[in-house]
Design goal:
heterodimer, A: mainly alpha, 9 helices, B: 2 domains, 83% helix, elongated
Chain lengths: 175, 109
């Protein structure tokens, strides 16, 4: 954890809104990316990301410094997402996949690739999807992801490997 | 990294939120304020509830005070009104919250 983040969180514990603003600014991208991929929907992901930051504000004292602040935030996000698992199932059945892709953020990937990866990712079991997202998208190490997901390191490694293989298989199949 | 891996990487990162997003921050703060307001309303309602129960339990005593035009009844009413107004305001003060947290840490180190 950087000293900066530690100071920031200590200020948040003291009730500083300015520090909270900085905390949100600094970590929103990682938390939102994680939740968007996990829920398969941008609006739901952003909504839960806001809930995550509110929980971080309320429970700032629960941070023990064992992980990075970003990891701690993703841990809160993971627990919230797991709790809301039932409503995702309904969401997933409603989601048409293609419509949930924002056309303005095409980047280097083709729409076909994005759609294939999105579908394959949504087809993965929840914990596997979380492990893949944390390691391959958010850039966490396997051990950090294991701490966030409260899962054994070996399980996380295997989740990431299998998940990655499934995504590549899906892309090859559609090529 | 072969072509497939590059494509996978690009596809996984497509549609990432921006590194800085003031709108998201503002929406989060609005939500925080709403949550605080709701908490404040709940606390106020709890205080009102407690006072209502106290008044109901002591209705005879209060009745006798009112009948006797006792000054104590007006003093109590004034104190209750002041408490209702003050408690939610005080509770939202950072120093008060810090004091409560410090007290909590003393109780549960």
């Amino acid at each position: 954890m950087s000293d900066d983040d530690a100071a920031l969180l200590s200020a948040v514990r003291g009730g500083s809104e300015l520090a909270f603003n900085t905390l949100v600014d600094r970590h929103q991208q990682a938390v939102r990316t994680f939740l968007r991929r996990l829920l398969g929907n941008e609006a739901d992901g952003d909504d839960m990301a806001q809930e995550t930051f509110l929980a971080a504000w309320t429970h700032a004292r629960s941070f023990r410094g064992e992980a990075s602040v970003r990891g701690w935030l993703c841990g809160i996000a993971w627990r919230k997402a797991k709790g809301a698992q039932r409503s995702w199932a309904r969401q997933r059945s409603r989601d048409t996949g293609h419509h949930a892709l924002s056309p303005d953020a095409a980047g280097a990937a083709t729409m076909e690739d994005r759609l294939a990866v999105k579908r394959a990712l949504q087809a993965l079991p929840l914990e596997q999807r979380a492990a893949v997202t944390l390691c391959l998208v958010c850039g966490f190490s396997h051990s950090e992801a294991a701490r966030i997901l409260e899962a054994p390191l070996g399980t996380v490694k295997s989740h990431v490997q299998r998940g990655r293989d499934r995504l590549i298989e899906e892309m090859e199949r559609r090529a | 990294m072969n072509d497939l891996e590059t494509r996978l990487n690009d596809a996984l990162h497509a549609g990432d939120p921006p590194a800085r997003d003031p709108l998201f921050r503002v929406e989060t703060l609005v939500r925080l304020e709403r949550a605080r307001f709701r908490r404040q309303v709940r606390r106020t309602l709890a205080v009102v509830g407690v006072l209502a129960v106290l008044a109901a339990v002591n209705v005879r005593l209060i009745d006798s005070w009112v009948a006797a035009n006792d000054q104590r009844v007006w003093t109590a009413a004034l104190a209750a009104a002041a408490t209702l107004w003050t408690i939610p305001v005080v509770m939202t003060r950072p120093r008060f919250r810090m004091a409560v947290r410090a007290f909590g840490r003393l109780l549960y180190p």
